[in-house]
Amino acid sequence: MKKRSIVLLMASIMAMSAVGCGASSAKADEHPKEEPVAPVTELSGTQTVVVMGDDWGPAVTKTILHLDKEVESDSVAADAFSVAETKEQFNFAALAEDSEEDPSKHIEVTADRQVTDAYTCDAQGNKSDDSEYVALEMYYSPNDGSPFCYDIFTSQNTVCDPYTLAVSLNDGKTISTTDGSEITKITVDDKIDLSLDAAIYPQLEGADLSGTYTGETGHTITYGSFKPAEDGKKHPLVIWLHGAGEGGNKNEVAVLGNEVSALYGEEFQKVMGGAYVLTPQTETFWLQYKEDGEWGSNPGKDSIYLKDVKGLIDQYVAENEGVDPNRIYIGGCSNGGFMTMDMILNYPDYFAAAFPICEAYKDSGITDSQLKGIKDLPVWFIYAANDDTVVPDQFEIPTIKRLQAIGANVHTSVFDDVHDNSGRFKGEDGKAYQYMGHWSWIYFFNNECEEDGVNLWNWLAEQSR
């Protein structure tokens, strides 16, 4: 009897287990297993560009892709990517006699940008390990990558609008995400924001380009400024006056149109022992001598902005106790070279030195009395002999001869032409790339101006009233 009870108990337990298993199985059948998710093959994202100033002006040198997944660093290579640049450009073809197009209307042009390097990076474009950011470095030159549009009718540069970069993966090329997906396509927003708040301008770090000043004559001047580190000492103030193409109300155009950012750079700042830099900008032209806008035919008359520039300088010096009032240096190129001459001719005792470059102040408009006024002011002229924009025979050469005749403190750096000295760019003849002869400011910003073994930057740093 006892044995039979045990057998029945075990049979009951087995039956209950069978029912339980059956119930679980039925429940599982009610929620079938999910199908595996298809692997990701496409990424999307946005981009931020890096803009660098160079001898001829600015260039977009790098774009930083912000993708929606982390990418393996080992999977990224330059040959995997293509970049097509589309931007605003002056319609030079419309100037042809047989053209029916309106040359005053800008066009859009598209060109491929050569990707020279690619790597994972941080948000600022610095190389890193696996990341959701990918940097694409691109070849740039005097003819490739500029985000500026120059209009020969207005004689000014503007920031290209539109400016886009279409980025894609080349056929047969892939990149890999850290979760194991193989990416065959990327879709990145091609619109580029070139504003100072959005794009990355490494050379402008530490500079404030947002200043505005309205002078006593009612003209408003945009300006930028740079301050050296505070050390309890007095430092010189260097004033740069831009050329005709860099007018407007975006000071980055005035700073990057010529490589004025070199004045913020380590080499120049070291030579100066730390220097303040002021970059005034007029919406029109320093050469303007009539309120109705006349400027190109200036016969040697004061700029309508003369008192406004002086007022800005006075205000800046008053607001910055670290400026040494005995070491204020002023210079500029072309249109800004004119303004440099206009300032020292009218305020000869205010400045410690001047460096006019391819200056456009007609010698015929300068009186003997004015030259005597700057006889003791150290002035260093820079120009190229083949300048056919501001012809030296009408501007610098006669003025320099007149100053030398009265024993003035005058110095010169005269070049045969303006060419690339970096070795980066060659012409079709295999020789150094030739710039316009007017662009002699390139030699100043590259610290290549000398006279009898004396370096201009070093000389400038030594001048004091």
UniProtKB/TrEMBL annotation:
GO terms for molecular function: hydrolase activity. Transmembrane segments: none annotated. Residues 1-28 form the signal peptide. Coiled coil: none annotated. Residues 48-182 form the Esterase Ig-like N-terminal domain. It comes from the Bacteria. Keywords: Signal. Residues 231-420 form the Phospholipase/carboxylesterase/thioesterase domain. It holds the Pfam family EstA_Ig_like. This is Phospholipase/Carboxylesterase.
